[in-house]
Structures are given as C-alpha cells and as structure tokens.
Amino acid sequence: LDTPSKGAYAPLTREIIDRIRENIGERFVISDPERMDHYSGDATELRCCPELVVEPTSKEQIQALFGLANDFHFPITPRGLGTGLAGGCVPWSGGVVLSLAKMNRILSIDTENLIAIVEPGVINGDLKRAAESCGLFYPPDPASLDTCSIGGNAATNAGGASCVKYGTTRDYVLGLEAVLPSGELIQAGVRTRKGVVGYSLAQLLVGSEGTLAVITQLILRLIPRPPAVSGLVALFADLPSAMRSVTSVLTRGHIPSAMEFMDRRCLGLVRGLLPFDGLDRTGALLLIETDGTPEAVEKEMERIGLICLEGGAENVFMAPDAIKRARIWEVRRRISLRIEENAQVYIPEDVVVPIGRIADFVSCLSEIEERFDMKIYTFGHAGDGNIHLNITVENRQTLGRVAEGIRVVLEKVLAMGGTISGEHGVGLVKKRFLPLELSPVSVRIQNEIKNTFDPLRILNPGKIFEQCAGG
Amino acid sequence: LDTPSKGAYAPLTREIIDRIRENIGERFVISDPERMDHYSGDATELRCCPELVVEPTSKEQIQALFGLANDFHFPITPRGLGTGLAGGCVPWSGGVVLSLAKMNRILSIDTENLIAIVEPGVINGDLKRAAESCGLFYPPDPASLDTCSIGGNAATNAGGASCVKYGTTRDYVLGLEAVLPSGELIQAGVRTRKGVVGYSLAQLLVGSEGTLAVITQLILRLIPRPPAVSGLVALFADLPSAMRSVTSVLTRGHIPSAMEFMDRRCLGLVRGLLPFDGLDRTGALLLIETDGTPEAVEKEMERIGLICLEGGAENVFMAPDAIKRARIWEVRRRISLRIEENAQVYIPEDVVVPIGRIADFVSCLSEIEERFDMKIYTFGHAGDGNIHLNITVENRQTLGRVAEGIRVVLEKVLAMGGTISGEHGVGLVKKRFLPLELSPVSVRIQNEIKNTFDPLRILNPGKIFEQCAGG
To answer: Which of A199, A209, A424, A426 to probe the B interface (max B CBs under 10 A)?
Structure first.
C-alpha cells in the first residue's frame, strides 16, 4: 500500500479553516482531534486523520465547500457511515472529510409511483423498514445493513445476500442529484423505470467510490413486498459438495432470494450460536431462502431441499421459524466481525467466480493456505459466486508471503472468468491488484473520465487507479 | 432537424476507399449506390446515403477501419439492423456506415453459468429462442424483436413489454468488448452477476447510442425460463380508467411480466385482427401477463382480473390460449406499422410518466390534439409508464404547429416527473428537445465524456447532444 501522502496539496491553513467555518457554519465543522479520529478510517485497519471534518445538512453547504476547495486546492474525501471494506473513505491525502451522516432524511416513500427519495446518509435498514411499513420492499442488503448508508451503498454499488434474485444497489438507483467537484449541482437519471435521454451519468456515478461527484439525493426504485419468505439450512460434509448443490439449484430453474454459505472454519467460530444441533462434523452450511406467494414458496423450498439431498447434504432443516431465521441471519452477518476478533491480522477478500466454477475454486484453497502460511475463512453469497475469503495471519512478519498468496488467489479467480471484487470495491486496498483485471486502455479511459469530472483532483484523491500524490 | 452536413469532414477520396478495401477486404465493402441505399436510414423517415458501407465479420477489421479513420479523418456511423426510431444510425455527416449485421454469431449459451456470449449482430429473437431451447430466458423484448440486433439493443438500452418485471437491456449486459474510436480494443464489465472493479464503463456504453465505442461482443445474463405464463385482456370504456387499473394492480403487490395498452384509435386500426368480439365501443384495451410457477400464475391472474373489474373494466377475457396469445402479441407489435401505413406523416414519441400519473397524462391529450391539429394514437407499456404517442399529421403544412404541440406534450411529461424518451433514445430526432430535460451542466459533462472516447469526433457525429458540423 502507498503511505499516506499530502502530495501536491497545501496544508489547510487557519485562514482556509476560518473560511470554511464562515461559509458552512460553525456547528457543521469538527476540528477537535479526538472527535476527528472517528472520521479517520472505515472497517479496514487503514487510518489517516483528516485536517478537518465537515458534516453538513444541505447540498448548498457542500457546494460552498467545493467552491473553497477550488479556490484553495485542498482535497475532500466524502464519507457515508464508514462501513466500507476497501479504504474508500479514508482521507489518505489529508484535507477535509465530508461526512454525509447528517443528511439522513427519507424525503418520501411514494407508494403510488413505487419510489423512495432519500438523502445519502439514510441507513439502509431504516429505508428497508420504512418501505416495508408501506407494503414495499427495498432489496439491497449488505451485511452491514443496520449501520451502512444508502449513499455509501450507491458509491460502492453495494450488493448483499439478495443479489442472486434482486441484483445490487445499481439496479435500484433510478436517478440522483450530486455535487460535482466544480461545485455545480447535477441531476442524473430519472424517476421512472425507463429513461434513455443522454449518457447514463447516474449509472456511471454508481460504483465510482466517491471519486467523481458527491451524491446528495437518490431516487430509488421500490418493489412490492413479497408476501412470504421461507428457507432451509443444508449441512454438507465439505465445501465443494455444498457448492455443487448451489449450481444445481440455479441451473434447475430456481431463483432463490438468498443462497449463503459458510465453511468449516466459520462454523467453528459460530457453531454454538446457531439454532441447530449436530454441526460438529459439518464441513459447510448452506442457507437458502425463497420469497413470493406462500404456495409458490413452499413448493419451491421442497424442491430445493431435494436437490440439496441429491447433492449429498447430510441434513436439511426445512423452514426455520421467524426467530430462528433472525438468529441465523444475525450470525451470518456477524461472521466477519468474529473472524476479525480472533485474528492478529485480518484481510477480507471479496472475489467472484462464475457459478459453475465455485466448487473448483474452493477446492484449491487449502493448498494455497499451506503454501503461503495463511488461514482462509470462507463464506458469502454462493448464489452469485461472490465468495468472501477472509484471510487471517498469525504473524505480521509473514505478510509479504501472504500478499503473494493473495495475488495467486486473485490470478486464479481471473483465470476462471471471475472478478477480484464483487462488492467491496477497490478504494485503497485493491489498487495494487487493479492491473490484474483492467487493461491499461481501460485505466486510461477511466482516468480521463475522472479528469472530466475533477480536473483539479480535489475529490477523494489516490483511490481506485489514481496515484496517491494528487495534484 | 439539422440538415445533413459533411461539416469539417473531407470527402472519402478514391485513395481512402482503396485503402479501406485493402485493409478490410474487398468482399466486406459495399459501394454500389443501390445497395448502399439500404444502409441510409432506420425506421424513421430520415435518410442520408453513406459514401461507403463496410460490413465486417471480425473486430480486427473494425480496428483497421478506425485506424484509417484516424489517419484520414472520416466519420464512421455504426449500425445494427436499422430498426431504431431516433435516427441514431443515419450517417448524417456522410462517411462510412459500419454495419454489424454480419457479426451475428451466438458464441455460447452457457447453461452452467447462466450467460450468453454473442456478437452484436445477433437478432434479439434468435437469442431468445436459443436460450429457451436450453431452458433459459433472455427477457428484453422490444416490439421489433424479430428484426432488431442485440448490439443495437445495447446501444439504445432497448426496453420492451417485459420491462415492468424484468428491466431493460442494461440489466442483462454483464460485460462487453468494444473498439474505441482510437482503434484500441477494450473489455468492460464482467462475466459474473457482481463486479465492482473500477468505473462501470459497460454501463456507460449501454445507452450511448453508438457514439462512444463500437460493441463487438456482449456477455449477457440469462435467467431460468419461467415454467408458465398466463394472461388476460381487459376492455375499458376509456383510457383513464384503464390506466387507473394499471396503477391499482402495481400498487397492490403484483409484478406482471407485461402490462400493455392500446387506445380507441389504435383499436380502430386493428380491431378486426384481434380474437375478441365486442370491441366496437371499447375505449381502451389492457393486455396483462404474469409468469412463474403454474399455480402462482393462475392465482395471480384471478386477482388481477378482479382488480380490473373493480376498476371499471367492461369485460375481462381470462387466460387466452397459446394461439390467441401469439395473435394478440403479433397485433400489438405491429400497431406502429399500421399507424404509419395510414398516415401522411408519422411521428413516434416515446414518453414515460410516473405510473401514478398515467391516467392524468392521457386525459389531457385530446385537448392538445385539437389545439395543434394532430391525431395521437396511444399505446405502449402501461406498467412502466412508457407511453408511445404516435402522432400523425394529414397535411405537411401544419408540421410547424405539430412541433409546437409535441413540445407542449414533452413539457407536460417533464412537469409530471417523467422523461422524454423511455426506449427510443435521442439520436437525431430528439436532439432539439434534449435541453428540456438535461441541464447545461449535464450536457457539458456528457460532451467531455464524448471527447475522452472520441477526441477526433469520428464516431457517429452529430447525435444526441452534438452539433452536426463535426470535426
């Protein structure tokens, strides 16, 4: 990783800070080092203290902040709620952190037009619950759904367990409003299901990790809430057989609303928390859910249960009740925290392989573990091939070898037709691996697009493909 | 509309044409004026004869063509199968038409990974049938599905009747390969359901109307084929009540796989072709379909039928058999051709309004018809608010007033929160109305993105927001 670097940026002088206070308002500015510490990192280990934090409640304040950044050439790093896993909101070049946490109003849940209009700081789970209370459904569900922001979800094109049926955040962003690095406001996209007027700037901003513009409002598509959900838990002797069953379910006509898995190591950490017996010898667990009308859901679960048994499941627990379901999901969503608690060094990888290759892919991991002195905890979204490899290392001195091992894993993923990140993005942590996946031509074009939006390089410098020096 | 203009482009000299023949191969070049006529327009009235047509079978030939265009500065206009409704493939600045019609191979239908890899000239319906024969489903279904190309669908982000449930072409493009105006090849996107490495160039190219790059290969997502489809036809006394029923169905938890409508005028043209009696006094027809498991589909159709009756339907014909369904769709998909046959001048508009406003919107059309001496045939995709307004004019001398009327309609659409194009795109025909929807800032950013991809302005000049002069 690059070291933090101010690059070509001048330090924030007292004069500049005073101008920011004047223009944005004293109470929206945080300069106390202890309070600023909270804004120095995300869910990775990366930390870099900003020189100032601005936490506005209006787009006009954001426009004013960019006005000053243009005049005085200081960097601005936008930040949702800091749950990212790639260092995307870490202010690696210093300057100002622009926190969107206080722009957290749900402006409308429009039940007639099936849209929600929200500010970027709204928590994903809050939007989900607001939609549900109106009989509607906002599907994207990253594991951090109770602590992550919709703006951050859009910036990273966050996925989640429901992606296998419902897609990612991208599929729900109809339109948005954003402040450009120039300070100008732009509306992109539409409020309707269709719209093809001009280039899709909304779709370009989704997934751009806060490097092109700061999203200040989102128009999101909602769908009717499925009347019923049911699920099953299937236990397998080993991970490859579990993964072969995943492929069988999908290629035999089913589209579950979730297909999650965890391996033996993960089960070792959370076994006692799960509401099932007999997990001692289990090599892999699948959690499969479907949603829809009650009659369809029940029949589909039966068929999927049979496919798992045919595929070698040693046990299938059908239709856990609501309390058990909630417990399973809680455990599933906290796995990465449990792994982190138990490790000296914790590196969350986030690869995707084509669903037909998942079993092959997981089969080759134990050899890599041995070769490179690392331990891999595997869990994630089996239904879309998105496998979270959580690598832990006992001894920081072997980190060089581990980095080599990660490169071997990522090369294998790409050779299988996969991608090195399915949900987390590139940010700082995957920059060095980016050239494995993207060609120089692609990076050049992306750099030029960045230049179009941000010619002075004041917005979130040093991320994705950009050299850290800035300026 | 601008008049065709060579702008700053030099004519294609004999020397240049010879170089193209040498580099691309004699048999891939068409220069006979009669044969070239076929490549001069699309499904609009717009025509402009190219100076040369190149119809290659490989990406290397396309790269070579762009190499020459860079050297000699001539414009290249890419073309799928010419079914567009916005003039997007009309070579308005002369130069070379690059036809993708012969790059029409389905390279693979991968049943294990649920993807198709295709060349851009593949006909939409051919891909649909190839997927179906493997138990899979490629949903996007523009009315021209038996004559339009997948490459053209991606270039325009084509929608169709199934959008209400399944989305548009954008939702099925996982990745693509394209030739940039520089002649370089680029891979964008992934082969998997998820992928967040770098800016989403694939999503930017989708809907860019062939102005940023020429797509040479597409990786498309397929889904399991729904085991059953059922439908109903509901007849209403007037269009607003039909549209109120559409909103009721959608806000009461249903997601039909199609919700098409036609108004009294359209029915007047096709009444005799439909397999139903009693259409004489019908003011509007709704065709609603759902797909899924047989048991779910049947129950859902019953509920939707009841909602239509509650909403004032005068008659509901449940579950037409396969022959009737095919007939209804044939009639529905040919309406625009029938309207065109019966008109002096035919202008297809393609607006979208929020679904809660559809009834209000169609209610105001008759006043506009009278005021501006035009006749509006209304049909389209009620479920996503995408209303095809087919305007016919008896007398070319009133075209000025009609243009004024169209502007009034589009302004009303935008005031309601809609968009001026849901499927057709901007091309040449909506350029003059673009500033109604997009701000100068948005247009400037789009122009700069165009410049990033095509600094010499050799690819499809004069389209969307670009002045026609080129160069």
So the answer is: A199
pLDDT grade for A469, boundaries at 50, 70 and 90: very low
Spell out the residues 6+ positions from residue A380 whose beta carbon is closer than 8 angstroms to its own: A260, A261, A350, A386, A387, A388
Phi-psi region of A443 (alpha: psi -120 to 50; beta: other; left: phi over 0): alpha
Please give the residue of chain B at the shortest CA–CA distance from A415: B191
pLDDT band (50, 70, 90) for residue A5: confident
- For residue A439, give how far its alpha carbon lies from the nearest alpha carbon of chain B (Å): 8
What ipTM was estimated for this complex? 0.96
pLDDT of residue B413: 98
Instruction: Compare CB distances from A423 to B196, B439, B451 and report the shortest one's residue.
Output: B196
In 3D space, the residue among A389, A384, A282, A406 whose CA is nearest the CA of residue A336 turns out to be: A389
- The secondary structure of A403-467 as a DSSP string is HHHHHHHHHHHHHTT-BSBSSS--TTTTGGGHHHHS-HHHHHHHHHHHHHH-TT--BSTT-TTS-
Mean of all residue pLDDT scores within chain A: 94
Q: With the C-alpha atoms ordered A445, A451, A454, A456, is the resulting torsion angle positive or negative?
A: positive
pLDDT, one tens digit per residue, over B203-229 is 999 999 999 999 999 999 999 999 999
Q: Reply yes or no on whether the pLDDT at B471 is more than 50.
A: no
Residue of B164, B168, B437, B445 best to disrupt the A interface, most CBs of A under 10 A: B445
> Which residue in this structure is represented by tokens 């898995």?
A261
- The mean pLDDT of B103-116, rounded to a whole number, is 97
CB B287 within 8 A of CB B328: yes
How far is Cα A250 from Cα A259, in angstroms, rounded to an integer?
A: 10
Token digits of residue A207: 């997934």
Query: A444-468: per-residue pLDDT in tens?
Result: 999 999 999 999 999 999 999 997 5
H-helix or E-strand spanning residue B177: strand B173-179
Residue pair A454/A75 in contact (Cβ under 8 Å)? The answer is no
Report pLDDT for A289: 97
pLDDT digits (tens, 9 = 90+) for A378-409: 999 999 999 999 999 988 888 999 999 999 99
Global pTM reads 0.96
Would the CB atoms of B419 and A197 count as touching at under 8 Å? yes
Minimal C-alpha gap between B304 and chain A (Å):
14
A36 in Cβ contact with A82 (< 8 Å)? no
Q: Distance between CA B356 and CA A114 in Å, rounded?
A: 9
A 413-442 residues inside an 8 A Cβ radius of B: 417-426, 430, 434, 437-439, 441-442
What is the pLDDT at residue A1? Answer: 63
Q: Give, in order, the Cα–Cα distances in Å from A376 to each of A282, A465, B159, B219.
A: 17, 27, 43, 31
| pLDDT band with cut points at 50, 70 and 90 for residue B468 | low
Q: How far apart are CA A471 and CA A459, in angstroms?
A: 10
| DSSP letter string, A224-272 | EPPSEEEEEEEEESSHHHHHHHHHHHHHTT---SEEEEEEHHHHHHHGG
**Among A296, A384, A430, whose Cβ lies nearest the Cβ of B192?**
A384
User: B108 at the A interface (CB within 8 A)?
Assistant: no
Q: DSSP alpha helices (H): ranges in B26-107?
A: 33-37, 59-72
The C-alpha atoms of residue A61 and residue A146 are separated, in whole angstroms, by 27
Report which DSSP code applies to A374: -
Task: Tell me whether B133 touches chain A (CB under 8 Å).
Answer: no
Could you give the CA distance from residue B406 to residue B423 in angstroms, rounded to a whole number? 17
Separation of alpha carbons A88 and A77, rounded Å: 9
Please report the residues numbered 147 through 176 in chain A whose beta carbons come closer than 8 angstroms to any beta carbon of chain B: 156-157, 159, 163-164, 167-168, 170-171
CA B199 – CA B204 distance, rounded (Å) = 9
